[in-house]
Amino acid sequence: MKCRLGDLARVSSSKRIYAKEYTTSGIPFYRGKEIIELGSGHLVSNKLFISKDRFNQIRSKYDDVPEKDDVLITAVGTIGETYLVKSRDLPFYFKDGNLIKLSKWNRQIVLPEYMYYWLNSYTGKMAIKKITIGSTQQAITIRELSDIELDLPPIREQGKIAQRLSTLDFSIDNNKHINANLVA
To answer: Is 17 in a helix, a strand, or coil?
Structure first.
């Protein structure tokens, strides 16, 4: 079934957080660098935070706080790196403009895990490359990302594909943690 990404999920970003709003503790605040680290199975190396009050203010006023199964995509500089939000990393907030969030999935026709793996596939990477703009500072836009078209297999097949790849990712992630503990 041929679909537009914008018909499968809400494609959005976040509210602006200024550097003066960073705090030494509170709710983790992620930029592209931190999302790349999380997406690669690494721990966040440079911890930034916003206050719990600011986070709660955003959560009560807007619908853009990350939730489990949202997908974050780097949108400036290093383009198209993805992170499938996991419960263990919540709560956190993220930088507007640098990251695009896919959320509110139409789960009757698409599984978030399948889309995460599709975005990381050769086909997904090429689709993102086609919409990349800029020569000095590359970027992708919410509008262009929303318009990406893809062929979706039936939901049952998506589940099988995502399950197989998830099992492999779990094994890889587990081995990384074992290696990190051996080095420490």
So the answer is: coil
